[in-house]
Design goal:
470 residues; Alpha-Beta Plaits; hydrolase; single chain; Aminopeptidase; four-stranded antiparallel sheet; 21% strand; 13 helices; 2 domains
Amino acid sequence: MDAKTATQFIESNFDSCFLNPLKDFVEIPNLTPAFDENFLTNGLIMDACRYITDFADAQNIPGLTHRLHSEEGKSPMLCIVIEGTGKRNVMFYGHVDKQPHMEDGWDEGLGATKAVVRGDKLYGRGSSDDGYAPFSALLAIKTVLAQGVPLPRIVICLECEEESGSTDLIYLLDKMKSEIQVPDICICLDAGTADYDNLWLTSSLRGVVACNVRAEVVPSGQHSGILGGIIPESLSILRAILDRIDESSTGKVVSTFQTPVPSWKAKEAKELAALKGKGLYEFCNFLDGAKPMFHDDLSEMYLGNTWYAMLSVTGANGLPPTADAGNVLRAFTEFRISLRLPPNKDSAVAARELQEIIEKDPPYGAKITVSGLNHGDGYCKAEYEPWMYDSLSKAAQSNFGSKTFGTFATGGSIPFLTELSKVYPTTMIVGLGAAGADCNCHNPNENLDLPFSKKFIGALASVLADCGTV
């Protein structure tokens, strides 16, 4: 496939085949089931899926069909199939569900369901996580077809509960097995990029365990002056429990949830630290005087972000706004916690260990309740066939002007990848993505870099052409 012709085709079709439909997708207010109690009944996820299928139909791609599997009590799954004429069966993976909108915190003029192009960025929920996936895959397919290059058989598999832990994933993959068949290659389009100057391959992803933890000692709030010193503070109880998981003075998680760093990951950490330097953290916009963790050792900072277990408190109940905070010992404190795990730590084992640690010997005999527990495994890249490395290098050279592609890890989680490797052990899994470190996915001001997206689609087209012909 001629790279210059492909670049011109993408440039001329970018708005109509990628940017405009992605903007429409952003403005559909669908969420993920964990954050939408009416997910299965309000029709929003079906609206999002139907928008994608309607757009796919309008592309006039020969041999394109699709099926949306939906049944009571389960998240849907969408598969778009193109019966190609070339070698191999290639699966693209993405997801349709979105994180909560978080309307407070978006910059003026921006919003979760308000697609806005500002400078080189498209802003809105789902722009970088993971709405670009189907549209980038479809434009890459059209780019290959425009030059008459044989396509492999392609299935674009779109999950609808990735942000909720992919609970029904294995069940749904089985339901869609006639469409998916056995992929030779899976290109995951939910990964990230280390920068916007090269094509980056994901080497590993962390696993995750998340749950709600509630501490209570009395049935209702009491006057803090009258009963303070008799009734224990529920937040202090919860903090004592969390101290069993990580050291509050350092943020380091206990050894129960850690695994040894393999030599290849230690080498990668040194290389990325040398390449990026302070670029590993400067984009975070720290306040004056604030410092990152591991600020005196960039290799350790990289491992802290991509390999070590780390605990976050992502939400709270039982704490009134300060404007409404009287002198009251509150009845309870509840946190939502997220524990990121090393890529090779068994998340099911970690979930059991976490619950045991939380519930054992509660301070003051307090009532401790664990709810909403879910988990997902991490991922480490396996070796590829030589032609795939050659193809990725060629895609990086022709679209980014790089000598070869880069490899890096991200600290996020995509449970799908490990689950797929269990179901299809012979499949080459290639993690590629357009979410940069500044994309703010899951947060206000989520955005997608548009110049990078054009190059990224060109790289996808290059690899896809090789999949069908090499």
